[in-house]
Amino acid sequence: MGTGTSHPDSERVQSGILVENSDYKILLDIGSGVLHRLTQLNLDIRSIDSVFISHFHIDHCSDFLPLCQSLWLSGYEKTLNLFAPPTVRDWSRGLFDISFNYLREKILIDTTLLSEYHVVPLGDFVITVSPTLHGNYDTRAFRIEYGGKSMTYTSDTAPCRDVIELAKGTDVLIHECNWLDGVHPEGVHTSPSEIAKIAEEINPSKIILTHVSPEVVANQKKVIEIVGRRTTAEVILGEDLMTFDI
């Protein structure tokens, strides 16, 4: 749903992915604008069961409280499952205890702290978690398996052995591509040439590039060509509201 970054972009909101089957709906990250994208999908937000937050940079979590408020006003009767790294304790304390305490009484949230290596069964889904390499931030990647198929969402990461091992053999690789090839800070994000090397080892059927900056979008043909040099996978520059079956 959301394929952008913190850079303002009229065509892209911040990070967010909806994964669903007939029985269960999961959000992977919920940055600014994701709630609006959900309404554009004509989704009844009361059908959302779980939210996974990869880390607490604002472009991955800023719509969580608006979601909670909307669920309350929509008559949400379930308990919302929240899965996040252990830093969620300080984050939620600041949000609910200090700023928005009234929401604590309006919606029930069951929070699970995600260790670096974690397996979460949810209905017919199995979500496997690994750490990523994203500066000094405690960040998670997610692999979701269902019906013999799988997709892996890297979240924010530089090339990282844990993420590669998590994603090996996945059908759909949703990989961040925050910047072009060039000189950048080490250990933060991934460039097209680095994704090409990673894809060669993971061997997915499809690669969807997300968390794309305006400069990546402006050079998308070149980016797709670079990523595809060492893989037979279909390479797609993700767009907001894009849907696909696994």
Helix/strand-derived category reads alpha/beta
CA-atom Rg in angstroms = 17 Å
Strand content: 25-35%
Compressed to H and E, one letter per element, the order equals: EEHEHEHHEEEEEHEHEHHE
Helix content: 25-40%
Q: What is the CATH class designation? A: Alpha Beta
| Main sheet properties | 7 strands, mixed
CATH-defined superfamily: Ribonuclease Z/Hydroxyacylglutathione hydrolase-like
Secondary structure blueprint with pairings:
Blueprint: E1 16-20, E2 25-30, H1 34-40, E3 50-52, H2 64-73, E4 80-84, H3 88-99, H4 101-104, E5 109-113, E6 118-122, E7 125-131, E8 140-146, E9 149-153, H5 161-167, E10 172-176, H6 192-202, E11 206-210, H7 214-218, H8 220-227, E12 234-237
Parallel strand pairs: 2-3, 3-4, 4-5, 9-10, 10-11, 11-12
Antiparallel strand pairs: 1-2, 6-7, 7-8, 8-9
Helix pairs in contact: 6-8
Structural write-up:
There is one protein chain. The chain is an alpha/beta fold and 246 residues long. The protein has a single domain (16-237), classed as 4-Layer Sandwich (Metallo-beta-lactamase, Chain A), CATH 3.60.15. It has eight helices and twelve strands. The chain has helices at residues 34-40, 64-73, 88-99, 101-104, 161-167, 192-202, 214-218, 220-227; strands at residues 16-20, 25-30, 50-52, 80-84, 109-113, 118-122, 125-131, 140-146, 149-153, 172-176, 206-210, 234-237. The protein has a seven-stranded mixed sheet. A five-stranded mixed sheet has the order 1-2-3-4-5, with no helix packed on it. A hairpin with a 4-residue loop joins strand 1 and strand 2. Helix 6 packs parallel to helix 8. The longest helix has 12 residues, at 88-99. The protein is globular, with a radius of gyration of 17 Å. The two termini are 16 Å apart. The mean pLDDT is 94.
